[in-house]
Fold Thiamine biosynthesis protein ThiH.
Amino acid sequence: MLIDHEYIYKLLEDAQKASPEEIQRILDKAREAKGLTHLELAQLIQLEDKTAALREIFEIAGEIKRKIYGNRIVMFAPLYISNYCVNNCTYCGYRRDNEYTRRRLSQEEIQEEVKLIEKMGHKRLALEAGEDPVHCDIDYVLEAIETIYHTENEHGNIRRVNVNIAATTIENYRKLKEKNIGTYILFQETYHEPTYTQVHQKSIKNDYEYHLTSFDRAMEAGINDVGAGILLGLYDYKFELLSLILHNDHLEEKFGVGFHTVSVPRIRKAEGMTLKDFPHLVDDETFKEIVALIRLAIPFTGIILSTREPSEIRNEVIHYGVSQISAGSSVGVGGYKAQTEGIAKDQFQLEDHRTPLEILKSLMKDGFIPSYCTACYRQGRTGDRFMPLAKSGQIQNVCAPNALMTLLEFLLDYGDEEILKLGEEVIAREVHEIPRKETKQQLIHNLERIRGGERDLYF
């Protein structure tokens, strides 16, 4: 069994015996970005007196993040194209039993949404849709992807479409691959099989093994970038966190590469549900710990943080390992366009309502480089080609320059006077930090070309 429940329970039981010396050894190993064994992660999870250890865990997670990703934060936005759904997931606003007007966007409406998203500066989208084989079949999704890529915008097209749709067949994953998608994203929601069965009720989605093995089928179809996630609050986070790492290890052993990204959403209020129905909700302090432990356990995997989280939490956990965040998000179908009341329904409640400009200003004031880079995908640095570059540190030689070039594009095309001044200061500072002389010279040359009107330059 891919997720051996008894093995996880035994890990958590054995982990309670760790001595202070053993914990320190684990932390020293983690500091070297070597990852953690299942037992080592369980030992950190099971710490009773966490005060001192947590300070060091946060510190190490920040060190690893800076070592691998530098101070870059990749930006994206979700695009919901359909809220038709045949499933009855108890935590979701799109559940079948909720009665409201269902809709899917026409290709023209998708174009309108894309234009509005692009006006915020985004070049990377995450396509989202409910599961409905009739109203939202694979052909509709494929056409939507093509529409997104070919929508002409004032300052250029969308450059990468990640796709978050229901588990499907190898044949359908091949079709997605042929449409040049970026990362295929699918949340397991919960790895605890009894809870999975309980929260998904009578639904197509209520097939634990089929859902769990979706990434195997995707990789067999040639998709080598996959993004996982757990919905924190469905079951005990300790079990979920260990299961997530087991799943990643399974893919690494079978296909040579694990998760490209991991998302860490917490349950939020949605139509037709109340948070009181979920006894495993994760508080803020535990959430911070989870993010940091993921960074220690799988150092080279990206961590995605959405606008489900309030700005204060997002600003803090970015320091503990987050590498991608959404900005200016809408989680309703047609949500980027002013809608008649009752037409657009959000899938869940958002907490961070800042504009992309406000978020970028905050990031840069905190010492980060907002990045709109999509170069690795278009240069073929994905899957088992990306991870060796990341683990060797060579990826830094292209990621930092690409981040700065896309930041300058944003400043010139979408920025106001304040952010332009702030961003130019960031670029000047970061160019000085580029270690390779040849790279620095080419970057300076490219930045001047961008100021002269050229776009989409990358290493």
